[in-house]
């Protein structure tokens, strides 16, 4: 069976949305709207795999929804909602917990990074996180998943889960009316766009992250012009002038990152950026990058702040999106329960 093309992606409401989230994910979400039906989810249940202060969590959920809309996602034509309002995600995740193998989970590098040395003290939810992510995608039987580079392994696991479910329940899937025995699609990652891996402004070998203790490591979507300027001015560089060709960026992670950010924001390429700024000093280039970043991010940040303060509007969008998402998800769960052998209406 050919699956209907459908885009699904999620962003965690765990604090400051930054330039990496924007260029690595949200910009692509916006682009895909013209070609596909899209579902964009604020994954609040993923967020609580590590401790979240409840009042902060509530604020972050609304902030991510506001960022989606401020960046240009149309919540009427597509679906914008928060995960916890659609209980079918958790329901399917449980089934997947029983499909996925411990050996598969043990290979997940994000768990190892997030759990750190004190693995015994990590939540069970953090360990099962990829199974919930697979459920997010497959409860809509989505075919395309725009993500940054760091989520590639989780997408591979999603496909492994889909495949094992399809194999384990082949006969029941056919009986349920899916003649070719395929119930879940092999969801494809969409890792394209201007910058699939934006690095920290303090260390070009580490990815830009919400959890970095230094706020100077990232540009937040909510930062004002002065803050953006300060952060770019203080961004780590090396003593050499910028190279004139792209291969000159090798072994210079900070220069590579800043040039990549410029190219992504300008809609050009690193080669084009270097043809203009190569041979020059970082200070000149940084000045241009500040102007560009303020110009591109300023309006998104301002609109995001305006929308975040309109709680009634945002909560209305999330409730409406959740109801529409739930109608789709409950249809999948009805089949899943039948396939697995649960008894019910
Ligand atoms: P998260 O904040 O972890 O929920 O990530 C939301 C989306 O942003 C995911 O698709 C990530 O892959 C993407 N993302 C997060 N950090 C970066 C980064 N530094 N560079 C590019 N994409 C990123
Ligand atoms: N794990 C993703 C991240 O940290 C967020 C996420 C949760 C997601 N569920 C998803 C992304 C489903 C794509 C599809 O970035």
What does this structure look like?
With 345 residues, this protein is mainly alpha-helical. The protein has two domains: 6-196 and 310-340, Rossmann fold, CATH 3.40.50.620; 215-306, Tyrosyl-Transfer RNA Synthetase. It is 54% helix and 6% strand. It has helices spanning 19-32, 44-47, 54-71, 88-97, 102-105, 109-115, 124-138, 152-168, 170-175, 225-234, 253-266, 270-277, 282-309, 311-340, and strands at 6-11, 37-42, 79-82, 144-146, 188-190. Helix 4 packs across helix 7 (124-138), helix 4 crosses helix 14 and helix 11 crosses helix 12 (270-277). It is globular and about 70 Å long. The mean pLDDT is 96. Tryptophan (TRP) binds next to strand 1 and helix 7.
What's the CATH architecture name of the largest domain? 3-Layer(aba) Sandwich
| Helix-strand sequence | EHEHHEHHHHEHHEHHHHH
Termini, distance in Å? 26 Å
> What class do helices, strands and sheet pairing give?
mainly alpha
Text of the CATH class of the largest domain:
Alpha Beta
Describe the main β-sheet briefly: 3 strands, parallel
Shape: globular
- CATH superfamily of the largest domain, by name, is HUPs
Q: Kindly identify the CATH topology of the largest domain.
A: Rossmann fold
Flag low-confidence runs.
none
User: Which sequence of strands runs across the widest sheet?
Assistant: 1-2-3
Number of strands: 5
Small-molecule components bound: adenosine monophosphate, tryptophan
Beta content comes to 5-15%
Main location: cytoplasm
Motif ('KMSKS' region): 207-211
Protein name: Tryptophan--tRNA ligase
Pfam family, one: tRNA-synt_1b
């Amino acid at each position: 069976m050919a699956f209907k093309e459908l885009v699904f992606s999620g962003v965690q409401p765990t604090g400051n949305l930054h330039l990496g989230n924007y260029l690595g994910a949200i910009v692509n979400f916006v682009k895909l709207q013209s070609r596909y039906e899209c579902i964009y989810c604020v994954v609040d249940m993923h967020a609580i795999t590590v401790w979240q202060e409840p009042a902060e969590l509530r604020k972050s959920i609304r902030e991510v929804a506001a960022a989606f809309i401020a960046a240009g996602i149309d919540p009427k034509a597509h679906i914008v909602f928060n995960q916890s309002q659609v209980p079918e995600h958790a329901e399917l995740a449980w089934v997947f917990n029983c499909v996925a193998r411990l050996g598969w989970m043990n290979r997940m590098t994000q768990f190892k990074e997030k759990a750190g040395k004190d693995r015994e003290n990590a939540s069970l939810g953090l360990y099962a996180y990829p199974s919930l992510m697979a459920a997010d995608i497959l409860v809509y039987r989505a075919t395309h998943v725009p993500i940054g580079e760091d989520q590639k392994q989780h997408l591979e696991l999603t496909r492994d889960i889909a495949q094992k479910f399809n194999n384990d329940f082949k006969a029941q899937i056919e009986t349920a009316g899916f003649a070719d025995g395929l119930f879940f699609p092999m969801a494809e990652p969409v890792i394209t766009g201007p910058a699939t891996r934006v690095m920290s402004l303090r260390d070009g070998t580490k990815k830009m992250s919400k959890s970095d203790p230094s706020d100077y490591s990232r540009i937040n979507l909510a930062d004002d012009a002065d803050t953006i300027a300060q952060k770019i001015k203080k961004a780590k560089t090396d003593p050499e002038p910028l190279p004139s060709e792209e291969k000159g960026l090798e072994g210079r992670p900070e220069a590579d990152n800043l040039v990549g950010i410029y190219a992504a924001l300008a809609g050009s390429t690193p080669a084009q950026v270097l043809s203009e700024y190569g041979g020059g000093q970082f200070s000149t280039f940084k000045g241009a990058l500040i102007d560009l970043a303020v110009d591109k991010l300023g309006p998104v940040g301002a609109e995001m702040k305006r929308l975040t303060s309109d709680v009634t509007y945002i909560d209305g969008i999330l409730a409406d999106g959740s109801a529409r998402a739930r109608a789709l998800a409950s249809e999948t769960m009805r089949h899943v329960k039948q396939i697995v052998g649960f008894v019910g209406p």
